[in-house]
Design goal:
Blueprint: E1 12-15, H1 21-32, E2 36-41, H2 45-57, E3 62-66, H3 72-86, E4 91-94, H4 109-137, E5 140-145, H5 149-152, H6 158-178, E6 183-190, H7 196-199, H8 203-212, H9 221-231, E7 243-246
Parallel strand pairs: 1-2, 1-4, 2-3, 4-5, 5-6, 6-7
Helix pairs in contact: 1-2, 1-9, 3-4, 4-6
The protein binds NADP nicotinamide-adenine-dinucleotide phosphate.
Length: about 250
């Protein structure tokens, strides 16, 4: 059993969408807790390099991979590269996500397709590529980042909430598919968290969300990362198929 603070010592992790925001905080937290980490980004190369430098500064190995998570082929390539260069894979965190909001009577086919391709198929792609590695070694941790809005719906976000609700159902099924090989599959569902995604939100919508939060403040990416590190560790060895909300009580 790992020591608290060295939760994932000696493990190898992939975090998708880890150049910025919540993914960045997760990658840094896993490295701080002892893992070598492969980070992924689509556009923000400089930000990704900065995260890698911090991880290496902690004495951990880091691989930086540019890939659009919606590509099935690229996901397989990244997993293969991680296994080859970092020696194995123990932890898969799917986090990369976007939003393209619009009320249902105005949402375009393109808005729907883009969000589903990145926020839902992107998760399938990486979990599908990681699953055979985890089955072979009879060990693995999958942590998928959804949203509380995948549990309750949200005005103007039919595409986003369909993807997030889909992630929750898909992760429960994976927990059943993979449970007999010592593989834990869980979801973290954040509420409103202070990142660039939220900075881009309409002020009125942000204010409304803020008033729902029982703890009275927006969450920080590190507060999501702490929970991901726990679920990715052997401290959570008897937890699978669960969704843990990190939302300051927003959905309570
Ligand atoms: P963010 O600040 O916008 O960061 C998104 C990250 O995903 C970036 O690193 C971005 O990298 C990457 N990304 C986007 N499209 C990608 C693609 N096609 N392929 C690979 N990487 C891609 O967002 P965030 O707020 O940290 O959100 C992270 C996750 O948490 C998302 O799944 C989001 O839905 C979820 N979430 C966030 C909140 C919140 O309040 N912030 C609440 C609930 C759930 P590039 O810049 O390189 O594209």
């Amino acid at each position: 059993m790992a020591e608290l603070g060295k939760l994932v010592e000696g493990k190898v992790a992939i975090v998708t969408g880890s150049s910025r925001g919540i993914g960045r905080a997760i990658a840094l937290k896993l490295a701080e807790c002892g893992a070598d980490v492969a980070i992924n980004y689509s556009k923000s190369a400089d930000a990704a390099k900065e995260v890698a430098a911090q991880i290496e500064g902690m004495g951990r190995k880091c691989l930086v991979v540019q890939a659009d998570v919606s590509s099935f082929t690229d996901a397989q390539k990244m997993v293969d590269e991680v296994v080859e260069k970092l020696g194995t894979l123990d932890i898969m965190v799917c986090n990369a996500g976007i939003n393209k909001d619009g009320v249902i009577w105005k949402m375009t086919e393109e808005q729907w397709d883009q969000v589903i391709a990145i926020n839902l198929k992107g998760y399938f792609n990486y979990c599908r590529a990681a699953a055979p590695v985890f089955r072979e070694k009879q060990y693995g941790k999958i942590v998928n980042i959804a949203s509380i809005n995948g549990l309750r719906g949200k005005f103007g976000q039919s595409n986003y909430t369909a993807a997030k609700g889909g992630i929750i159902a898909f992760t429960k099924t994976m927990a059943r598919d993979l449970g007999n090989k010592n593989i834990n599959c869980n979801v973290v569902a954040p509420g409103l968290i202070e990142t660039e995604m939220v900075a881009a939100m309409d002020e009125a919508a942000k204010d409304k969300s803020r008033t729902e939060i029982i703890l009275g403040r927006i969450g920080q990416p590190e507060e999501v990362a702490n929970v991901v590190a726990f679920l990715a560790s052997d401290f959570a060895s008897h937890i699978t198929g669960q969704t843990l909300n990190v939302d300051g009580g927003q959905l309570m």
